[in-house]
Amino acid sequence: VVVLTVLGIVIPLALWFFWTSLNRVGSRSRKLLLFALRLGAFTLLLLVLLKPELEFRKSQFLKNSIAVLLDNSKSLSIKTKIFPDESSRIDLIKKALEANASYFENLGKDFEVDYYFFSDDIEKVAAGAVKNTYRAHRPYTDLTRVFDALVERYLDQSLQGIFLFSDGADLTQ
């Protein structure tokens, strides 16, 4: 701030001095040439005194992460009566995933979308493998353990959101 204030005072004074000291020079073109030379010398002096530096930075764009958690506990094999038929809870989740596949694909353009199967433990799975390997077979769901494990996995990363597909049956108590 102090340097800018000093420069704000010194530069106009120097310009005024450069121009008024050229009163004895008769030719206008010669006066402009001398003024330009003085201005160039003054600018060069300022650059030397202020020591400007160029800094080159290489930046890398990192995508934020979104976790898609898919419950794979046995409670998802329970059939739920939904008009007009009866479907298992895991089938409802599969239908929701299929219906929103384009949405998750679009999310992948801006975010790193990570898929996990969870129950009493959390297991990362590739997005393409979800359709073929998703089944209800684990004994119970422990959401506390799952979220603790998720925090550990994203300790040094930016987790921006979680999609949780579950029947909500936390059977650890």
List the helices and strands and how they pair.
Layout: H1 2-20, H2 28-50, E1 64-71, E2 79-82, E3 85-88, H3 89-99, H4 101-110, E4 111-118, E5 122-125, H5 130-133, H6 143-153, E6 159-165
Parallel strand pairs: 1-4, 1-6
Antiparallel strand pairs: 2-3, 4-5
Describe this structure in words.
The chain is about 45% helix and about 20% strand. The protein has about 170 residues and is α/β, with parallel strands linked by helices. It has two domains: about 1-50, no CATH class; about 65-165, von Willebrand factor, type A domain (Rossmann fold), CATH 3.40.50. Strands 5-4-1-6 form a four-stranded mixed beta sheet. Strand 2 and strand 3 form a beta hairpin. The chain starts with a helix and ends in an 8-residue tail after the last strand. This is VWA domain-containing protein. It comes from marine metagenome. Keywords: Membrane, Transmembrane, Transmembrane helix.
Gist of the model:
The chain has 173 residues and is of the alpha/beta class. The chain has helices at 2-20, 28-50, 89-99, 101-110, 130-133, 143-153; strands at 64-71, 79-82, 85-88, 111-118, 122-125, 159-165.
Cα(first) to Cα(last) distance is 63 Å
Total domain count: 2
Helix content: 40-55%
Quote the CATH topology of the largest domain.
Rossmann fold
**Radius of gyration (Å):** 34 Å
Protein name: VWA domain-containing protein
Keywords: Membrane, Transmembrane, Transmembrane helix
Transmembrane segments: 6-25, 32-50
Organism: marine metagenome
Could you list some keywords that capture this structure?
6 helices; 173 residues; VWA domain-containing protein; alpha/beta; membrane; transmembrane; 2 domains; transmembrane helix
